[in-house]
Amino acid sequence: MKFIIATNNPKKLKELERILNPLGIKAVSAKDAGVKLDEVEETGKTFAENAFLKADAAFKLTGMPSIADDSGLSVDALDGRPGVYSARYAGENATDEDRINKLLFEMKNVPKEKRNAHFTSSICCIISGKKKIAVEGICNGTIAFEPAGDGNFGYDPVFVYNNNKTFAQMTTEEKDKVSHRGNALRMLKTELKRYLEDN
To answer: 113: which residues sit within 8 A by CB, 6+ positions away?
Structure first.
């Protein structure tokens, strides 16, 4: 069974592949499916709304079961910012480094005990016109004073899990066990397994 992954982010695709393959589901990118997936305007006010918009666009374009994730970082001291604007936080064509620099600049006077944050991952899976699965995973942590580690992507170098390592200092296996996307994907896996057994 093939599912199209509605993302142009190769690292996100790899993360989804690792979870879906054991279910006998082949995760394919739009490119693999021979279609051009335009960037969807993320007009939703929540991660869940944006995940649906992306999955729905891929499903309508290809007719294949589609999965989309919308995720981001919410920082308590910044009233939940960057939130749904995590990817666009430092402007349209900013790099991960630009976004991290902006975040650290905005938090430069925030003491250690007030640097709480959480990552959210909302995943929407549209299997057919009648069947949709929506799940959401969260991971709590804190924001470091400077980046550490060179693995993974996004805000990972400044997100500290369990007062221990940043996500960027973890192996992909360590991160998958505790991350917001790992949590959401495990829920998705349970729901998909149930659906596949029933159908």
So the answer is: none
